[in-house]
Amino acid sequence: MPTSTSPQTGSILKQPLAVWAVAFASVIAFMGIGLVDPILPAIAKSLKASPTETSLLFTSYLMVTGLAMLITSWISSRIGAKKTLLIGLALIVVFAALAGLAGSVEGVIGFRAGWGLGNALFISTALSTIVGAASGGSGAAITLYEAALGVGIAVGPLLGGTLGTISWRGPFFGTAVLMAIGFIAIVTLLREEKSVVRTPTKLSAPFTAMKVPGIRYLAGIALFYNIGFFVLLAYTPYPLGLDEMGLGYTFFAWGLSVAFTSVFVAPLLTKRMKRTSVLKLVLTILALDLIAGGIVIDSQAGLIVCIVIGGLMLGVVNTVLTESVMEASDLPRSVASSSYSAVRFLGGAFAPPGAAALAAAISPSAPMYAGAASVFVAVLIAFAGRKALRRVDNGHEESLLAEAEAITVGESL
After folding, report:
1. Closest to 118 (Cα-Cα) out of 149, 86, 141
2. Which listed site, 14, 155, 279, 335, has its alpha carbon 20 to 30 Å from 49?
3. Contact call for residues 351 and 371 (beta carbons, < 8 A)
4. What is the rounded CA–CA span in Å between residue 111 and residue 123?
5. pLDDT for the residue 197
6. Structural contact between residues 286 and 382, judged by C-beta atoms closer than 8 angstroms
7. What is the pLDDT at residue 86?
8. Which GO molecular function annotations are given, in alphabetical order (predicted)?
9. Other CB atoms closer than 10 Å to residue 321's CB: what's the count?
């Protein structure tokens, strides 16, 4: 019986070398998110900083990444995707190395901000580059991109823990070296078609994109979801009380969970359910998981289980949200991605210091409950935006219709 072929689906493994080069660099870029997790206590001890101060390593990185996302499409539409990617990678190499050389926590925080600028230029352009160059349609490309995110987040803590046993500076130098390799890979393998005429994007385009109801609702969902995401990622290393390698292995398992569900579970769910239904279901489970984490906050084993289960939920939500943004409007992918990602990263920027402050002022469980409440708000936004998000779900219905027609034709032969 013949199988259906949808423009939105395909094998993520059968890709041009250029796509793999960008995906490899994406893995390293996303390593930067979880890289500092295992070394947060070590940085606090070595640089005599409080948990709130060290949590600002996430805030400066994510805030600058989010704000810079608003101008990345304007830049890339003028100088091209390849140059934008390379500038982003070069900035990450420089600022990661400088963070490793810093002599104070304020210095590390500042250099992480510069790292965030490079990250924004790279990440927003990488997604549109992979989608544009990949074979198998946007569905396969987005799955590959989210897989890179998951692998990067998984390997980041493991690398951070391994190099962190030598020195807290080691993970920063390690990232600089790996990003330099990614730079060489893109220079060598990614070719831009000279015949392509670039249409410059207006500086106001990402702001105008927020006028599209679908993108606005998805950005709202991502904003509150990311608060729960970074409570789980940036706060839990403190109550866990593990050493660098213990934290590295814990968040390696968490990141593998993100990668697994991004690649294998999310596509299965969206074939059987509407995207918005998947979001409502999985976000609700994530909120309950955060509540459970708050209840077992004093149990090391219990909290580890909650972290890994949370990773399974995060992988699904990341993929489905990204797919939804790509389908929510007729805007260029780079513009939609920039607008949505800006709000998404800004949501994560406030979570780490907020969680540390709540833990100090109320109790160690309070940040987990606050994260759960934020994720429940994301669920409510998904319900409120069901009409605006109808286009996102129509893609699912059209895919099912095409599959049903293909099966019917196959059975008639």
Report:
1. 86
2. 155
3. yes
4. 18
5. 60
6. no
7. 93
8. transmembrane transporter activity
9. 26
Phi, psi dihedrals of residue 236, rounded to the nearest 5°: -60, -25
Predicted local distance difference test score (pLDDT) of residue 377: 97
Q: What's the CA gap between 407 and 387, in Å, rounded?
A: 30
Model pLDDT, residue 13: 65
Closest alpha carbon to 91 in 70, 129, 64, 57:
64
- DSSP secondary structure, 10-59, as one string: --SSS--HHHHHHHHHHHHHHHHHHTTGGGHHHHHHHTT--HHHHHHHHH
Q: Would you give the DSSP letter of residue 325? A: H
As a whole number of angstroms, the distance between CA 258 and CA 144 comes to 13
Tokens matching residue 296: 């077992």
DSSP 123-187: HHHHHHHHHHH-SSHHHHHHHHHHHHHHHHHHHHHHHHHHHHTT-TTHHHHHHHHHHHHHHHHHH
User: What is the rounded distance in angstroms from the CA atom of residue 125 to the CA atom of residue 147?
Assistant: 16
10-residue averages of pLDDT along the chain (413 residues)? 42 72 83 76 85 85 88 83 91 94 92 91 80 65 73 82 87 88 86 64 79 90 93 90 88 88 90 93 98 97 96 92 84 74 83 91 96 97 91 58 31 29
The C-alpha angle 28, 157, 44, rounded to 5 degrees, equals 115
Note the pLDDT of residue 398: 41
Q: What is the pLDDT of residue 97?
A: 94
Domains of the chain: 17-192+200-412 (1.20.1250.20)
Asked if 300 and 242 touch (Cβ cutoff 8 Å), the reply is yes
d(CA 113, CA 135): 35
